[in-house]
Design a protein that fits this description.
The structure is a homodimer. Helix content of chain A is about 40%, strand content about 20%. Chain A is α/β, with parallel strands linked by helices. The first copy, chain A, has a single domain, classed as Rossmann fold. In chain A, strands 5-2-1-9-10-13-14 form a seven-stranded parallel sheet, sandwiched between helices. In chain A, strands 7-6-8 form a three-stranded antiparallel sheet. In chain A, helix 1 packs parallel to helix 2 and helix 4 crosses helix 5. The longest helix of chain A has 19 residues. Chain A is globular and about 65 Å long. Chain A starts with 5 loop residues before the first strand and ends with a helix. The mean pLDDT of chain A is about 95. Chains A and B meet through helix 3, helix 4 and helix 5 of A and helix 3, helix 4 and helix 5 of B.
Chain lengths: ~325, ~325
Amino acid sequence: MSTKRIIALSGGVGGAKLALGLSRVLPPGDLTVIANTGDDFEHLGLAISPDIDTLLYTLAGLDNQATGWGRRDESWNFMAALEALGGETWFRLGDRDLATHAERTRRLRAGESLSQITDDFRTRFGIASRILPMSDDPVRTRVKTRDGWLDFQPYFVRQRCEPVISVIEFAGAADARPQPELLAALADPALGAVILCPSNPFISIEPILALRGVRAALRDCAAPVVAVSPIIGGRAVKGPTAKMMQELGLETSAAAVARRYGDVIDAYIVDHADAPDCAGLDPRIVPAKALMETLGDRETLARIVLEAAASVMEPAQ
Amino acid sequence: MSTKRIIALSGGVGGAKLALGLSRVLPPGDLTVIANTGDDFEHLGLAISPDIDTLLYTLAGLDNQATGWGRRDESWNFMAALEALGGETWFRLGDRDLATHAERTRRLRAGESLSQITDDFRTRFGIASRILPMSDDPVRTRVKTRDGWLDFQPYFVRQRCEPVISVIEFAGAADARPQPELLAALADPALGAVILCPSNPFISIEPILALRGVRAALRDCAAPVVAVSPIIGGRAVKGPTAKMMQELGLETSAAAVARRYGDVIDAYIVDHADAPDCAGLDPRIVPAKALMETLGDRETLARIVLEAAASVMEPAQ
């Protein structure tokens, strides 16, 4: 197994599960996770970064596996008191989780970058892997519905992805500076692999690919780029990926996600059920058990991903 | 007993105790409490109004009598999580209390006035009495120490009033518009009484008196102005009043507080222990049990205050 640096691009839940697996099978410190920040928003005056936080909580073992967001053993006294005052309660903020947003907000206002703050938080949470935002500049995912444009969290949380969407846009992506450590790693001939985690391609991975130069750097980088399908047996494990694909006029299949990633990826991990459908595709197809139910599943899938990356680098037999 | 409108000027703890007594012995809605906002500050991006909140919590029966601030049955999970992230923990924010600050901050940013927000909060807390800030404009109490000027909360909470002070200043008081309902009430010939609650004179009552026109309006108003001494038996019940008096070169006595209020007050409620010392003063001196230990004490003192106000209006025998 590689002991070189591994880069993982990730959104929330599904991506964080694989990131946890990778963090456990790699030597400490070899993994750097680049987090989507297209879901970030300001709420109640707080700077909220949902995917960064899901990664922090998951890699720290503090994640709430029942909800897929927030912290386990959370209390909700803030929320109950806010409701009594007639406040906005559609975005649920637990008492402990709130501290992450409050402290991040304070430090951003004091002039620190989201990268610095996130790196300090992961250290304080005792996480050996690096977690960095895809950019320190704001990028905001928005969706176009029949009733006009919606910001991401009002669409995703408040309206539970119910409106039919026709376009997804990453406002600010053209001007945002990509995470310098991502570009430096992609240009490094010693990079071990890049992994596109099984997050929602449209709202978790593509915001990162939309940053200036990132797609080209992935195409040009010496290391293998391995994606893991978020579609298992023709369905999304969690969240609105399948519904979005239908609304965007795409077939709901692992193969459609691979075609979407195009020539960026060298290998593609799919569930055994989806492998036949992917037979004719360009990237090397690696069938596996893609559903990560247990911690063991996460570690096993992480090993398969790393082996797939290594196999891409071997000369064809 | 009067059924006319009663105005009470109040700071936190001691003032809120008497305000609670008044709210219980007066017909619902007859009491309007004007709260000091000189202690207000921004912390963690939140607009915090300590005296307003102590009044809200006390009149709603939610106050923490052990601490004198915050809510009873509070939880501290936010604070513990903030500490783990290396955040600022010198100002203790309970999980439920936090909702008050977050919602106030959101509504202030949305353009509502502190008066509107506070009036809505007291309604939501089921409080019949009105609670209004002394001004919707920022006034900030600062103290001069040997090491320079300190903002109030860093002095009061962070440094526990330890630095010796030489000057107290209410930054912004000269430009702040006094609460319009206060000025209207003071100009109303039907006003029942004005009560200066037993709060710290220097940092709770004087910021209100420092607002443009308030001192003159109190002097000129037709209703009796009754103050309650915060000094009992030559000592402050709670807080730094006595220490401040010493540092400002004042005698620590109920009489010194009355002299400080000067011709603003018509009657002065003092503890039996302090009455002899006040004998030669201008305002009518009304001895009472000034220490409010029980709810009954608060109601009894409230009745004495209202009777003193009524007696001022009677022709001298």
